[in-house]
Design goal:
alpha+beta, 42% helix, binds copper (II) ion
Length: 118
């Protein structure tokens, strides 16, 4: 009986968490969060990518995890698109998912930002 009570409390708690999440969901349904696998190498890549994406109309925020090379980007899908963001990354010299980097831009990156593929 005590266990049943515990389980009930846990379930109640889980429900509260789910509901609070629903309430705090973004009001703008056009804002989406996507992940992009990049060829970024170091902290300088992170700064470069995040700084450049900040200037892209529609991008709310971006965060590159240097360890996993995965960029998490939050954007308004009526103002920009995943394809456009990938192209922006390519223009900066980075691969983005299956789209390839602009090699000329890549060659201009500092040595620490090169992954040695070109
Ligand atoms: Cu770098």
């Amino acid at each position: 009986m005590k266990n049943l009570l515990k389980v009930s409390f846990v379930l109640l708690f889980v429900n509260l968490l789910l509901f609070s999440d629903a309430y705090s969901a973004p009001q703008n349904k056009n804002i989406v969060t996507e992940k992009i696998r990049t060829s970024a190498v170091c902290g300088m890549c992170k700064d470069r990518i995040e700084k450049n994406l900040k200037n892209v109309n529609g991008i709310v925020e971006s965060n590159l995890n240097v360890d996993t090379k995965v960029l998490t980007v939050k954007f308004d899908k009526t103002l920009t698109s995943l394809t456009a963001i990938r192209t922006k990354l390519n223009d900066l010299g980075y691969d983005a998912d299956t789209t390839k980097r602009d090699v000329r831009a890549y060659k201009k990156l500092p040595a620490c930002c090169k992954d040695g593929k070109y």
